[in-house]
Amino acid sequence: MHMSNGAPSIHTTAGKLNELRRRMAKAQAPVGAEATDKIHAAGRMTARERVLALLDEGSFVETDALAKSRSNSYSMAAFKPVGDGVVTGYGTVDGRSVCVFSADATVLNGTVGEVTGEKIVKILDLAIKTGRPLVSILDGQGARLEEGINSLAFYGQIFQRLVKASGLIPQISVVLGKCSGGNVFASALQDFVIMVRGQSEMLVGTPQMIAARSADARSVDATTKDTGEDVGGADVQMEKTGLCHYVADDEEDALTYARELLAYLPSNNRAEAPKQPWVKLPGAPGSHPRPGDLELDSLIPDSDAAPYDMLGIIQRIVDDGEFMQVQAGRAANMLTGFTRIEGRSVAIVANQPQVLAGAIDKAAAEKAARFIRTCDAFNIPVITLVDVPGFLPSLEEERTGAVRSAAKLFYAYGEAVTPRVTVVVRKAFGEAYNAMGSKHLGADINLAWPTAQIAIDDAANSVPYLYRQQLAEAAEKGEDADALAEKFLAEYEAQVINPYVAAERGFVDSVIPPSHTRDEIAIALRLLERKVVPEYPKRHGNIPL
Which of 42, 135, 186, 212 is the most core-located residue (most Cβ within 10 A)? Predict the structure, then answer.
């Protein structure tokens, strides 16, 4: 039995299958092929293509593909695209299951309505109860004006699910368009935010709203194409606000970074991160040196004031020299990122002497604190490499909340229960010594190189204060006060600024040759695999946000 157009009758099994194929084909391009062509002409992918690019080939299982809006308000009665503006489902990345949703900006500018919200909430609930990472691909504006309070209600439910999932499953937000309203809050609530330079924007309001409601409308030119980029573009959200964790060159780069992040993260807080095969060599530390290990023995300059690249140390102590930075474009005086040691996923937090001499400012403290808390939530060991002259002293820092920002770093290290190994490679002065994963804040294994300098302050600042009376008396007697100061400097450096004072008191567990660092860390991590920390009966701490 066939219909007049030659298609099987809807009353037959063949006809019913044909109707399903027709509806599913409509879901592939909800607003027509012309909209898809425009997206491709702009060098971008459709919402569905982004999902397929993220996931392993052939692994995507879509959910609620045929959902449609139930609203009849305003223009919605006549315009009900299949899927209602979001693609949801699950699949695999490197063979590991993940849940995903991808906003479709061609449908009502990517706004979220009641059915859109229902689809997203369903996939979030699925990710939570199955313990699967979530990747959200965002593009478009926030609440759907045509659907009023229903839209806001579902945004609230989305936010609540994202908070519930925080620390339970990894959450990665890939922002691939001009986002505002609820979409930016949904992104900011997740663990990692990825944006594309020149394409992604994150704004509470649209550029037009910002311009219209500004005290001086001329301060924002809503007619220029780069307004949103200037106010909430990828580089702004990286360098100025710290909201962004990676600035990609294009969509493919953004999705590749998301895949690479997932390779270092466990599926949930009860699982282990993926491990790579690695041959563990027997013997004591330093018994199987590589060329890179031996190079560490001469890497630190003889002059305390001379900078060097901390990345050179990192690359020599990790597997294959690979280090995936997180927030590389923000606070370059603090390095954060993922790597592997003996095939195991670990995190690195390190001062960078090439920038501000490695001093900790507001941005660096917040960058490290956020990263440490993320790693602690998923039991990823934190390796801290220390060369810090102190917290950055400046009037601007003080006035804009340096104390509160520094407190976040103390809190993150003090709260963390994940395995922690700290290596002091050179300077560790003042409270910055404490802040950078000290034994006193609960680090498990603390090591120091012979070049380590652990003290309240360096000799140049300490000697004039400690010996002020002797130096003043020498000057009054007409003696060579400068020569005496040099003598005191030498004594201070020999007696105070060295790792052995700390070692004598147990504040560092071992002073080691730099060439043994890789082995010492690897052996420590083997020990800490079975680390157990008792829990205290409290709801939660109160981090100085």
Answer: 135
pLDDT-derived band at 497, boundaries 50, 70, 90: confident
Burial class (CB in 10 A: 0-12, 13-18, 19+), 115: buried
User: Residues with Cβ < 8 Å from 448, sequence gap 6 or more?
Assistant: 423, 424, 454, 499, 502, 503, 508, 510, 511, 512
Q: Is the per-residue pLDDT at 223 higher than 70?
A: no
3-class DSSP state for residue 78? coil
How far is it, in rounded angstroms, from Cα 204 to Cα 198? 18
Nearest to 453 by CA among 498, 501, 502: 498
CA pair distance 446, 423, nearest whole angstrom: 6
The tokens for 358 are 């490695």
pTM > 0.85: yes
CA 136 and chain centroid, separation: 15
Q: Mapping DSSP to helix (H, G, I), strand (E, B) and coil, where does residue 530 land?
A: coil
CA distance 436 to 17: 63
Cα separation, 192 vs 135, in Å, equals 10
**Residue 237 burial (CB < 10 Å; 0-12/13-18/19+)?**
buried
| Residue matched to tokens 């590991």 | 96
Q: Give the integer Cα–Cα distance in Å for 500 and 49.
A: 59
Residue type, 243: L
Amino acid at 322: E
pLDDT tens digits, 68-92 = 877 777 777 667 788 888 999 999 9
Summarize pLDDT for 26-45 with one digit per residue, the tens.
778 777 788 888 999 999 99
Distance CA 288, CA 298 (A): 18
Q: Helical H runs in 233-319?
A: 234-239, 251-264, 291-295, 310-317
| Amino acid of residue 398 | E
String of DSSP letters for 159-204:
HHHHHHHTTTS-EEEEE-SEEETHHHHHHHTSSEEEEETTT-EEES
| pLDDT score, position 222 | 46
Q: How far apart are CA 533 and CA 376, in angstroms?
A: 12
Strands (DSSP E) along 16-166, which ranges?
Answer: 61-63, 86-93, 96-103, 134-138
What would the pLDDT profile of 441-462 be if each residue is shown by its tens digit?
999 999 999 999 999 888 778 8
Q: Is 523 exposed, middle or buried (0-12, 13-18, 19+ CB in 10 A)?
A: middle
Query: Tell me, what amino acid is at 424?
Result: V
**Which of 39-43, 142-146, 321-325, 470-474 has the weakest average pLDDT?**
470-474
Q: What Cα–Cα distance (Å) separates residue 103 from each residue in 74, 93, 120, 302, 312? A: 22, 19, 10, 55, 41
The token pair at 137 is 């691909």
Helices (H), 436-539: 459-466, 468-476, 481-495, 499-504, 517-528
